[in-house]
Amino acid sequence: MVALVHSGAVLGIDGYAVEVEVNLSQGLPGMSIVGLPDAAIKESSDRLTGST
């Protein structure tokens, strides 16, 4: 099952649409962040899941 969430973000005075797609299926837990190559974004999955 795929869940889709529409939200928004603000950068300065500009607003941007944000779309988050989540696959809710059985199996091993995991996270994949795509489209943002910044190291801070890659480290965010560690902060969200508490894993190393």
Describe this protein's structure.
This protein has a two-stranded antiparallel ribbon. By secondary structure, the protein is α+β, with helices and mostly antiparallel strands. The mean pLDDT is 77. It has one helix spanning 39-49, and strands at residues 2-11, 14-23.
Furnish the topology, listing elements before pairings:
Blueprint: E1 2-11, E2 14-23, H1 39-49
Q: Which descriptors would you attach to this protein?
A:
1 helix, alpha+beta, 52 residues, two-stranded antiparallel ribbon, 2 strands, 38% strand, single chain
- Share in β-strands: 35-45%
Main beta-sheet strand count, sense and barrel state: 2 strands, antiparallel
Q: Rough shape?
A: flat
Trace the largest sheet across and list its strands. 1-2
Give the mean pLDDT: 77
Q: Secondary-structure element order, as H and E?
A: EEH
In angstroms, what separates the terminal alpha carbons?
A: 27 Å
| SS-derived structural category | alpha+beta
Ranges where pLDDT stays below 50 over 5 or more residues in a row are: none
For the secondary structure, the number of strands is: 2
Give the radius of gyration.
Answer: 13 Å
Number of helices: 1
Helix content: 10-25%
Compact description:
The chain is of the alpha+beta class and about 50 residues long. It has one helix at about 40-50, and strands at about 1-10, 15-25. The protein is flat, with a radius of gyration of 13 Å.
